[in-house]
């Protein structure tokens, strides 16, 4: 059984993501080991073949000047360097907070604060180059994803991205009446390094249970209004092909399956 290293960037904060990531890994026939990067400074060895780096709270600049961030970036660089010289590649998936940090590290775009928090379930648009991508080809255009963030990646450095062998996979919804850059929602840095700004691990059933709790409902309605709360709950109950259930069932499972297949061939 292949083993996945989970790089935990939640810094001890309560979250739904970690349990969902572990569930997806287990359901697809992999075992895993968790490394608490921010709170405990834990970094895995390079002996794993597959890595998933999680989302997390706070600013993607919180780690500047701190030992844990330096160690994290050094580790990412080791994996990248390995892939330049060895046929058996290291496969890494970066989620939300990790995605923003990865963009900072490789200088692939501007990471900045949004004017307001993105909170809810939103359409995500695939680029023409990515519509045949193996991770995303089973999803509709647009597909829907859970998106909770104060920060964003805009003005991508496409020349640098191309030089690394990557491309932009997806962009946020079109806002024709707003003069703002569309944030990058997913990016392939190389065939083995993939990142998403949204949460592909978001499980609609788990989220529904979480937001049905009276205290959480009051919290959401106080911050965003009753309409926003009802909209989220309607989306979580949707079982159609363009729902986040479809996103949950395909992106991370496809990443694990494709990585495993490439490792077997290598």
Give a short overview.
The protein has 266 residues and is of the alpha/beta class. It has helices at residues 17-27, 37-40, 67-85, 97-106, 158-164, 204-212, 214-224, 226-237, 244-265, and strands spanning 3-8, 31-36, 50-53, 91-95, 110-126, 143-154, 167-172, 184-188, 193-196.
Keyword list:
39% helix; Rossmann fold; alpha/beta; 266 residues; globular
Shape: globular
Q: What's the rounded overall pLDDT mean?
A: 92
Structural class by SSE content: alpha/beta
- The portion of residues forming beta strands comes to 15-25%
Q: How many beta-strand elements?
A: 9
Helix and strand element order:
EHEHEHEHEEHEEEHHHH
CATH topology-level fold name: Rossmann fold
Give the low-pLDDT segments. Answer: none
The separation of the N and C termini measures 16 Å
Count of all domains: 1
Q: Helical proportion?
A: 25-40%
CATH class descriptor: Alpha Beta
Second CATH tier, the architecture: 3-Layer(aba) Sandwich
What would you give as the CATH superfamily?
Class I glutamine amidotransferase (GATase) domain
């Amino acid at each position: 059984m292949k083993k996945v290293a989970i790089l935990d960037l939640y810094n001890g904060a309560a979250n739904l993501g970690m349990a969902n990531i572990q569930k997806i890994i287990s359901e697809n026939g992999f075992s895993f080991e968790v490394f608490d990067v921010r709170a405990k400074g834990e970094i895995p060895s390079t002996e794993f073949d597959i890595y998933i780096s999680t989302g997390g709270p706070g600013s993607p600049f919180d780690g500047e000047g701190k030992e844990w961030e330096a160690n994290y970036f050094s580790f990412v660089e080791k994996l990248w360097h390995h892939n330049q010289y060895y046929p058996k590649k290291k496969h890494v998936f970066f989620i939300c907070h990790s995605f923003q940090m990865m963009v900072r590290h490789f200088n692939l775009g501007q990471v900045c604060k949004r004017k307001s928090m993105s909170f809810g379930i939103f359409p995500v648009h695939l680029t023409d180059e990515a519509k045949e991508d193996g991770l995303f080809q089973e999803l509709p255009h647009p597909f829907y994803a859970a998106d909770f963030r104060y920060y964003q990646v805009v003005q991508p450095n496409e020349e640098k991205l191309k030089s690394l062998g990557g491309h932009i996979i997806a962009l946020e919804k079109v806002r024709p009446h707003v003069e703002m850059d569309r944030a990058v929602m997913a990016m392939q840095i190389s065939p083995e390094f993939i990142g998403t700004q949204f949460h592909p691990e978001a499980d609609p059933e788990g989220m529904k249970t979480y937001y049905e709790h009276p205290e959480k409902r009051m919290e959401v309605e106080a911050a965003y209004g009753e309409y926003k709360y009802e909209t989220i709950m309607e989306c979580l109950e949707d079982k159609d092909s363009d729902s986040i259930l479809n996103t949950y069932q395909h992106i991370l499972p496809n990443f694990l399956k494709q990585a495993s297949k490439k490792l077997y061939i290598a």
